[in-house]
Amino acid sequence: MNSPALRGAGLVVLQALRVATVITLLVAGAACWILIINVEKNKPYFIFECFTLFFVSVFCSLLAVSELAFAEFIKVYLRRMWPVLSDHHGLSWLGFGMIIIGCNILGMLNHDLKMSSALSSLVLAAGILAFIFGFLNVVCSFIWCDRKEGITSRDIRANGSLAQSQRQYPDYDTNGRSSPVRNEKYRSKIASMFWKKDKEQFVNGQPDISPPYVSHYARDIEAQSDSPIIPGLKRPDTALHPMNSRSSRSSRYSEANMSRF
């Protein structure tokens, strides 16, 4: 994979495979809706069969959007919600998804569906193409990748020989600092639903802390704050005593203010 020629060839091959993949997914989605219309309505559980085909068509649309993700907000959404389909991962999960879609569509041809030959051929072609191009995506994902450098097949498809590693994922969590705090608050709310003790200890999200303990000796000292010389005159606070002052002394008792000679 260190050969620039091999990576350049991978750029051409993977871009051509990308076009074929998008066309196949669109055809597979259309085939699902054809099967929904022509499903046997006289069976009691046909509605579940319709829902299954509907979800397969939605999955086809999601894979097609992941391959046509040219806008930045779509890339950011895929990195957060569907990281295996984003540009930070290879094409293997896309290929496995297409194989599942192809198997599902081909399996529906087992039913006795009343369709014209043209529609039946379209459904058959959609299933075969989904299976083939899904397998090719898996194979190409393992061929054009470099695990030591962290380079995936999507990186080579986008940049060719200039592909670089994208091991850093800054778009997964833009608020990285606030997410741990948010998760901690969420856990405390969940815990408070099961333990009443947490509800009693926390009031409006703040812990209920008891007031500081004041001993009887401290209360007696406060009560004896009157001046011993003049009854009724409150003694100044101890914090205002010159002994507790950080500033330099304002008076000099042991030094005479005169010359030594």
TrEMBL record:
Keywords for the protein's UniProt record, in alphabetical order: Membrane, Transmembrane, Transmembrane helix
- Fetch the InterPro entries from UniProt: DUF7598
Q: Where is the composition biased (Low complexity)?
A: 245-254
Q: Where is this region: Disordered?
A: 226-261
Question: Where would I find the DUF7598 domain in this sequence?
Answer: 10-143
This protein's source sits in the domain of life called: Eukaryota
Any keyword Transmembrane?
yes
The residue ranges crossing the membrane are 12-39, 46-70, 90-109, 121-144
Pfam families, per this entry?
DUF7598
Q: PROSITE patterns per the record?
A: PROKAR_LIPOPROTEIN
Q: What is this protein called?
A: DUF7598 domain-containing protein
Its ancestry begins with:
Eukaryota, Fungi, Dikarya, Ascomycota, Pezizomycotina
